[in-house]
Amino acid sequence: MKTERKIIRVETPEARPGFLGAGHMARQLVGADFTASDPFIFLMDDVLDKKDFQPAGGAHPHAGFETVSLLLEGEIGDDAYKMQPGDFQRMTAGSGVVHTETIDRPMRLRLLQLWLNLPRKSRNATPRVQDLPLAHAPVLNKEGVQIRLYSGSLNGLTAPVLHYVPLIVADISMEAGTTALLDLPASYNAFLYILKGSITAGKDAQLLNKEQVGWLDLFEAAEPSTLNVTAKEESARLVLYAGAPQHEKIVAHGPFIADSADAIPDLYQRYRSGRMPHIATVPADQRILL
Q1: How many C-beta neighbours within 10 Å does residue 268 have?
Q2: Which H or E run includes 69?
Q3: Which of 42, 54, 188, 247 has its CA 20 to 30 A from that of 259?
Q4: What distances in angstroms separate CA 138 from CA 130, 147, 164, 169, one per listed residue?
């Protein structure tokens, strides 16, 4: 018998003005307590309603983790590859990399970008980027429910994205009144983020509304579990994130993640001395189009 998961914590993150200037509102969904969110370090819901041609964003470094990006609206990327709505990207910063996210024209953009921990043994992995276009993500349509899977395995679907930390990312759309039964490992830390409408989730039928985050209970045993999700009186859309905790301490400082504070100054020195490559310039086998 599979373990039935439930929602144990509901959060309603507030949108605040972001660093990209006028028209940028940023909602921090994850990032308050890594011991509770492991392996998820940070997750932002960034909405930009840009009215001018003044460049926003730009080149910046990362090291020690992976960025996991799901673009909901707009266009973003570098000269090597530009993401379109519904596209997914998993960039392994690893030993250190520079990437560019510049918006230089009027546009409405919405991006979910997650910082995902790398296990200690892979902290300095060779940088790589995997791009999964919308059209190549596996999809399941059943009884008014659509599951589009971007990472991991869920309900018979398997995404082609390679991973150091097992991760499920699914965009789920539901017609009013429909129910989805989601199968995921009981040992995966998991949460839902509601993009549209309202749902009830878990064995206690916890109500979650638009722009709320619902965290699931977590079990040590590596056994199957299920999560029951039902759309209320209108259609709903949500994103499921579920990942295997690594149970390792981390130090976060600016754009870098390390195992100890002693490693942070070296990362800054390597970046300032130009020893972190730009992701657009890495060898072809490190830029993977799926």
Answers
A1: 15
A2: strand 65-73
A3: 188
A4: 16, 8, 20, 12
Q: What are phi and psi of 285, to 5 degrees?
A: -75, -5
Alpha carbon dihedral 58, 60, 66, 71, in 10-degree steps, equals -10
Residue 134, phi-psi category: left (phi > 0), alpha (psi -120 to 50), beta (remainder): alpha
The one-digit pLDDT tens for each residue of the chain (290 residues) are 789 999 999 999 999 998 887 889 999 999 989 999 999 999 999 999 888 887 777 789 999 999 999 999 999 887 778 899 999 999 999 999 998 877 888 889 999 999 999 999 999 999 999 999 999 999 999 999 999 999 999 999 999 999 999 999 999 999 999 999 999 999 999 999 999 999 999 999 999 999 999 999 999 988 999 999 999 999 999 999 999 999 999 999 999 999 999 999 999 999 999 999 998 889 999 999 99
Sort 288 into a burial class: Cβ within 10 Å, 0-12 / 13-18 / 19+. middle
Q: Torsion over CA of 248, 251, 257 and 263, rounded to 10 degrees?
A: -110
Tell how far CA 285 is from the center of its chain: 23
Residue type, 182: L
Does CATH place domain 3-247 in 3.30.2040.10?
Answer: no
Runs of H (alpha helix) within the chain:
34-37, 264-272
Report how far residue 170's alpha carbon sits from residue 168's, in angstroms, rounded to the nearest whole number: 7
Structural domain boundaries in the chain: 3-247
- Rounded CA-CA distance 63/279 in Å is 12
Secondary structure of 104-167 in HEC code, one letter for each residue: CCCEEEEEEEEEEECCHHHCCCCCEEEEECHHHCCEEEECCEEEEEEECEECCEECCCCCCCCE
Give every CB contact of residue 290 below 8 A, 6+ residues apart in sequence. Answer: 130, 131, 132, 133, 136, 160, 161
